[in-house]
Design goal:
By secondary structure, the protein is of the alpha/beta class. The strands form two sheets. A seven-stranded mixed β-sheet has the order 3-2-1-4-7-5-8, sandwiched between helices. α1 links the parallel β1 and β2. α6 crosses α7. It starts with a strand and ends with a helix. The mean pLDDT is 92.
């Protein structure tokens, strides 16, 4: 039987955090199986140099290799390997809610919704993280999008050409904005905050400090590097 949902996980050198995501997926899969659903899990190994692929296979995942080191390419590569008509995407350092796939299937079953997102929460909190979270949620509300586990019909994914592989950052917001335009053109809807918030890793804040995102605008001046160089280093630096 063809699975109902394909979960695509872009991953680069994620052997440390990937197992906890896959354990959360396994728990959610049990609930989805009981509800009569089928799930395929695809890890898009973005040219890792560690045991990411081995870890993924040990958890029963399909692994597809994506050579180009940009997250949009990894997401698209995983989608190409999927067989399901509903695609879902989540980052490797995230954990999913136990009811994630049940709620996605329920949301998409109406036939009117073509895409959406689960919503999210941070794995820990502090004053700096609370301010960062509030700012992020405000920006997402302005753009009328959300994060966490992003999902869509395969036909919608194909119609907009998937993720923009020329964007180092912001490809996820851009993707949802394209889907929003498609939904408007088709007279369809999108759903955000379906009651199953994903738990987002705070490892960037653990490394750089809980207030660091407010200082990033000054990093090009302080570090005497271009914004592009800083972005590539921040998001695509080697992890071992």
């Amino acid at each position: 039987m063809q699975p109902d949902i394909a979960l695509v996980i872009p991953a680069y050198n994620e052997e440390a955090l990937l197992p906890r995501l896959l354990r959360s997926v396994a728990d959610a899969r049990i609930r989805f199986d009981r509800a009569g659903g089928g799930l395929e899990v695809i890890v898009a190994d973005n040219n890792s140099t560690d045991r990411t692929a081995e870890v993924a296979r040990s958890h029963g995942c399909c692994v597809t290799r994506v050579e180009r080191r940009v997250i949009g390419a990894a997401r698209n590569g995983g989608a190409r390997a999927a067989t399901s008509q509903i695609l879902a995407f989540v980052d490797a350092d995230t954990r999913v809610h136990p009811d994630t796939f049940v709620r996605i299937a329920e949301t998409m079953s109406s036939g009117h919704c073509i895409a959406g997102a689960s919503g999210w929460k941070l794995e820990r909190t502090s004053l700096g993280l609370k301010v960062t979270e509030a700012t992020t949620r405000l920006m997402l509300r302005i753009f009328k999008v959300d994060g966490g586990v992003v999902f869509c019909e395969r036909s919608a994914f194909d119609a907009i050409g998937g993720y923009d592989e020329d964007r180092d950052i912001g490809e996820d917001v851009h993707f949802l904005l394209k889907l929003r335009r498609l939904a408007r053109d088709r007279g369809a809807t999108m759903r955000f905050g379906i009651g199953t918030p994903a738990t987002i890793s705070t490892r960037k804040w653990d490394e750089h400090g809980d207030w660091h995102m407010f200082a990033m605008a000054f990093w090009p001046l302080i570090q005497r590097r271009s914004f592009h160089e800083i972005v590539r280093d921040y998001w695509y630096r080697e992890r071992f």
